[in-house]
Amino acid sequence: MRTQVLGIGYDDIGMDLALERAMEMVEQGGMHYVVTPNAEFTLRSDKEPRFRDALNGADLVLPDGIAIMHASRILKRPLSERVCGCDFAQALCPLLARQGRRLFVLGGKPGVAERAGRNLAAANPGLVICGVQDGYFQRDADVERAIRAAGADVVFVCLGSPKQEYWMVEHGLATGASLLIGLGGSVDVFADAVKRAPAGWRRLGLEWLYRLLTQPFRAGRMARLPLVLLAAVKERVKGDGEDARKANRV
What value does the mean pLDDT of the chain take? Predict the structure, then answer.
């Protein structure tokens, strides 16, 4: 049973169980995909039913953004643990390495996926980086064939949202990979092209503030966080009103 927060159903299972399920999907074969919604995803999904369907159709829906955590509490459906997509992917790599699994890195500017692949392989001996591709490709079919020919078990799909979610839905099966994970700008972190907030900031749920201070150009995107909280308040008030009306009818 998923926990519904503003139209998106989350798997409220925490990091450890999410990793366990991901490895089960890799071992099962078939095509599975993972999404990690944040505030921007939520606002887009409210206006774009196709995107909302892509999110809710994922095999794992993990709460990435701190705004989602706060919204869940406002709605009295508190999610127990934030699972950041970047952290999830990094924690998955040593598990894949132990089994000698094959990882394909897709996305980013030219050269970024290569650096990301080298860094991930160096940090996780046994992990096979079977291929990389930047996000500036012209033909989806060419990427499908490259991933299939590489024999990838897992693909980190870092194309930005909503492109990566649509890409996984529409092309995931043709890649032959067992697990695809939408990770957006995480490829820049893996490549050391972008520095994440220090661990202390992340533990306090203040990564958004660190990014705003170090990347002021993101102010417009950060302004969307309170919009999610406002949407949660409106839904809560509406729900409380409906509950009161039902009680009065009894």
Answer: 90
Residue 226 scores a pLDDT above 70: yes
By the 8 A CB rule, do 67 and 5 touch? no
Residues 6+ apart with CB under 8 A from 223: none
How many residues does this entry show for the chain?
250
Q: Is the peptide bond before 216 cis (omega within 30 degrees of 0)?
A: no
Name the band, by pLDDT with cuts 50, 70 and 90, for residue 95.
very high
Q: What's the sign of the alpha-carbon dihedral 99, 167, 131, 87?
A: negative
**Which residue matches tokens 């020919």?**
149
Nearest to 77 by CA among 160, 132, 4: 4
DSSP letter for each residue of the chain:
-PEEETTEEE---HHHHHHHHHHHHHHH-S-EEEE---HHHHHHHHH-HHHHHHHHTSSEE----HHHHHHHHHTT---S----HHHHHHHHHHHHHHTT-EEEEEESSTTHHHHHHHHHHHHSTT-EEEEEE-S--S-HHHHHHHHHHHT-SEEEEES-TTHHHHHHHHHHHHH--SEEEE-TTHHHHHTTSSPPPPHHHHHTT-HHHHHHHH-GGGHHHHTTHHHHHHHHHHHHHHHHHHHHHHHHH-
* CB-based contacts of 201, cutoff 8 Å, min separation 6: 207, 209, 210
